[in-house]
Amino acid sequence: MTIERSANQRGVDFLLHFTRVENVGSILEHGLIPKDQCTQREIAAVINDELRLDGFPNATCLSIGFPNYKMFYAMRQRDKSVQWAVFAIDRSVLWTKDCAFCVANAASGSVTQIPIANRKTLAAFERMYDEYPDRPPRSTLGISAGAPTNPQAEVLVFEQIEPQLIVGVAFNSAQLVEDFQPHGGGREVLHAPELFRPRKDFKHWK
């Protein structure tokens, strides 16, 4: 078994990354670049998470199938004047890039205690789909086969994600869709307010 085969069997469709609208133009041009590389390459970016409590400013945080809505909501509450975008990224990143797979939020104690090398394996990827302690079974959660069990599960990507791997960008505003449609470079530019809401099983993760 490989990560590619496992992802295919589970029906993983795409990865997601949320960011402030100010970064959209740069991401469409350069792709997604880890925080420390942005500084080295003098690429302007407004950083979502300056603290990076996961300990890896050299990685970009992605989610599988649905945004980490708890973190996304908290960031949006900090300054309600800020507009946000959600990028969809080709799933091949999972097996073509240097990735670490985190069963919960990458900054949580249960994850940080696992050596990073142990999070870069097929077993680590598949653990994202295990039944979760003290939570209802996946069948009760009603989530898709491709969705990790914990809604805060994350993928850390330790390389640049090139622009051609970005398949679309979604906004919570029809006006932003209209504004960015001409700059999409053939990618899908969507009004997708559902990506700005909690995952369907949110009541089990309060």
Task: Note down, in words, how this protein is organized.
The chain is α+β, with helices and mostly antiparallel strands. The chain has one domain (3-204). Helix content is 27%, strand content 18%. It has a seven-stranded mixed sheet with strand order 4-5-2-1-3-6-7. Helix 9 links the parallel strand 6 and strand 7. It starts with a helix and ends in a 15-residue tail after the last strand. The mean pLDDT is 92.
Unreliable stretches (pLDDT < 50, length at least 5) are none
Number of helices: 9
Number of domains: 1
Gross morphology is globular
Q: Estimate the strand proportion.
A: 15-25%
Radius of gyration: 16 Å
Mean pLDDT: 92
* Protein structure class: alpha+beta
Biggest sheet, open or closed, and with what strands and sense? 7 strands, mixed
What's the total number of strands? 7
Strand order of the largest sheet: 4-5-2-1-3-6-7
Oligomeric category = single chain
Order of H and E elements: HEHHEHEHEHHHEEHE
N/C terminus separation? 34 Å
In percent, how helical is the residue content? 25-40%
